[in-house]
Structures
1.
Amino acid sequence: MKILVCISKVPDTTSKITFKDGDTKFKTDNIQFIVNPYDEWYALVRALELKEAAGGSVSIIHVGPAENDPIIRKALAIGADNAFRINAEAKDAYYTAFQIAAHAREEAYDLILVGKETIDFNGSAIGGMLAQMLEMPFESMCSNLQIDDNKLTVEREIEGGKEISEINLPCVVSAKKDLAEQRIPNMRGIMAARTKPLQVLEAQDCEALTHIEKFERLPEKGACKYIDAEHPEELLNLLHNEAKVI
Amino acid sequence: MSVLVYAESTEGIYKKAVFEQVSYAHHVAQTLGTDVLALTFGEAGYDQLGTYGANKVLAVKNDLYKDFDAGLYAAAIAKATQNSGAEVIVMAHNPSGRAVAPRLSVLLKAGLVSGAVDYPVIEGNFKVKRGVYSGKAFAYCVVDSPVKIISVTPNATSINENPVEALIEEWDPGLDSNLKKVKVKAVDRIKGKVPLPEAELVVSAGRGLKGPENWGMIEELAEVLGASTACSRPVADSGWRPHYEHVGQTGGTIRPNLYLAIGISGAIQHLAGVNQSKVIAVINTDPEAPFFKAADYGIIGDAFEVVPKLIEAAKKIKQDH
Ligand SMILES: Cc1cc2nc3c(=O)[nH]c(=O)nc-3n(C[C@H](O)[C@H](O)[C@H](O)COP(=O)(O)OP(=O)(O)OC[C@H]3O[C@@H](n4cnc5c(N)ncnc54)[C@H](O)[C@@H]3O)c2cc1C
Ligand SMILES: Nc1ncnc2c1ncn2[C@@H]1O[C@H](COP(=O)(O)O)[C@@H](O)[C@H]1O
């Protein structure tokens, strides 16, 4: 089985989010970047498990400039065989999916895994777009994935519960928590990642459909109003009469 | 021209969130000076959609569309869009919307803004405010394509009654049945509970509760307040609570009117999932707990003493009303 895992680069989860240039750009000073947790912990690890069980290969792909290579090496250290980087800024979800689709068409993967969403842009869009561009079925937000022959059975999140459904390969699956158990790269993996093939591909022409004009930080919270622990009923009064939420 | 809204029915019922989306579509249609067309699959109380401003309802009753299939649904919505010349499409940023909207974006070459938290601003360009950085910031996203798709975060915009007599039309998209690729084997919905992303009130607890045996009082408090329950990640990871209750950076993102956090420290990854809540109240023994910095109301105290008192007080208020 030939598997492709799409990985993105995001600020570490503890990052303080600030902006520059009149709030038009994310301020990257002192920010540590990581592989998007959904991509690394769940999508990539499940891909590796499938390969370990049934053979095949796991490739990773990233759309981004050369400065993102350390993120790709990090994913290789977890165990992927090889990587592709499409040399372009990921302008928007449509543009990014278009680049990945162009590559996937050439390589004829059996299974393409993406994360449920990136923790910076939270688009939840690239997986579905990719599936449509490749005219493949798409199972979103999966917490379990089994393959039997050509048939894939997943458990996926639906509004207020879960669904078990079946589709045939090839297909696109987006990963959420529980799809696999996070793996910590070991020294051997980190060493091996240095020499694994990382192929750089040129981007295809494609117009983005959206762009970000400006960012805005969350409004500052006023000071917390404290209520005496002996009289918690006062909290209910405030929530009812002042905040008017109950 | 018109605004098309995908009104999802769940086992024949329209949930509250659908009325938010229809109200949203109505607002956009008013701005553009056009009307609202709702597309819905399966039997449901179609008239209800008129209450919130749907001028016309396209009801797809064909059995092919009985089970959810993102590819098939997107193709049907694309067809309705083309037939009606709709320029804006509205749906929920929920699991179905997340699967359908991106496919639709490709079919129509229409820019998608996912997770919108406000109405579009249409002045020179078309821009929509959405959440980014897992709830730590917002972005104003401009759609540059002629057709625009907006998936709206549940509980971010209001439900408004704009009663019109909806014209109900049965419609068959006439698609090839080969487009259906997903075979649904089983559906398991939590009965009787409001799904967390839709809940207006949420009572949440963390490791400060010590063990799963102590959740009785959390559930009771939630029940008297009419709230849903949530938890921090280690609580779900330890199996004290089901995974769907886990909120935060790697769990669900919610924005209820009230988030009441009990025995949760308020780590940045937890806050990422809840800091867009309208009001945050915190109960914690530790005055230095970071959650108090993000809170509107705080009680420094032991949950095992405070929560039972709160339950009594809430019950009393309920009786008096
Ligand atoms: C990459 C990454 C992603 C993460 N994603 C998430 C996520 O999505 N969601 C999430 O929640 N966490 C997430 N975490 C974990 C997060 O960093 C915290 O470890 C976690 O939120 C702590 O949970 P807690 O507050 O329940 O437990 P603790 O940190 O153990 O806090 C317990 C709190 O309870 C208080 N307490 C103790 N006894 C009582 C009592 N009797 N009455 C009242 N209060 C009491 C304590 O003072 C303390 O503040 C993530 C971490 C990482 C590294
Ligand atoms: N620049 C990128 N390169 C490769 N894959 C990406 C990129 N950005 C996002 N993805 C993949 O698409 C998923 C969903 O991203 P998004 O639609 O932006 O929330 C991520 O979890 C990744 O698997």
Note: Residues 2-217 of chain A form a domain with the Rossmann fold fold (CATH 3.40.50.620).
2.
Amino acid sequence: MNPYLAGIGLGLVLLASFVLVGRGLGATGAFNSVIAWVVGGIAPEHARSNEFIAGYLGDGGASPLKSWLLFEVVGLFAGAMFSGLLAGRAKVMTEKGPRVSVRTRLAMAFAGGVLMAFGAALARGCTSGQALTGGALLNLGSWAFMITVFAGAYAMAYFVRWQWR
Amino acid sequence: MAMTAPFFKYGMFGDEASLVLAFLIGIGFGFFLERAGFGSARKLVSQFYLNDLAVFKVMFTAIVTAMLGVTYLGWIGWLDLSLVYLVPTYLLPQVVGGLLLGAGFVVGGYCPGTSVAATATGRVDGLVYVLGIFAGMFAFAELYPFLKGFYLSGSGEALTIPGTFGLPYGLVVFAVVLMAVGGFYGAGLLEKKFAAAGE
């Protein structure tokens, strides 16, 4: 799809979220809710004593899985799958450049996820919750975040070129 | 016109219905991410090698669309912007977080939302990336007692650009639109220049 058309579609979904629910899109919070659910299930004492996890446990009345962002991310999964199947783009494969083995690429994907998690935790959101949502609301921290995301990625791009080219 | 939105904040439906809406909104979100080609790590990281700037184009078109929408609906008095949730500002951790996240983006090939879209369309690296996020987030939570001081450095108020710099809201909106249009033009030029280098 033309990127500007896809952007308008994405923008209208974001606008609908603002108007209907009074909040924007997100992704990171859904991961935190799942972690709170798992840790809370295995070691409830430990989960409650950890402030970061406890923040996602709520008051203990409802399951941490009853989270707005988690429902939204489950929808994201379904919507992406629907679009991918419709376009014939859904297939089991590993995205990588020609000069890297699948094993190395997967190790890099894992490492990137770990880095991303620390970044998103410190920033209180990721490309969806901060850049997209906060960007549209002219949130100061979101704009500072967005600029540094591009800076960090461009600074790092040269060093991992072998993975993609 | 009387304020009526955000509907949820005005009590037009309850928590359960908001979760159903979350799922439906998510479907739209995932659909357009995948349509934009963002289920593919190679497409996403092309942004950082300058031969395909779709990430910039999609992101800024979406930001401008939603920004103009909330601004307009606020002006006609239909949407109460003060009831739309703003993430509180902790400038220093957000800047450091941005750098880490940017690095993680080009190392791993995705961001959290797009890694879910990639997993949904069968990308094994997307799934491994999701596992990496879980591992990293769990590690962050376990290290939180040591990181808390830095995590909470900053004002913690929900600051906006117009509010912080004392600028009229409409002027900042206009400036963002101009910047985006300039950026789209520049992106086109860069793509032409780097198209050959990308192959």
Note: Chain A is about 75% helix and 0% strand.
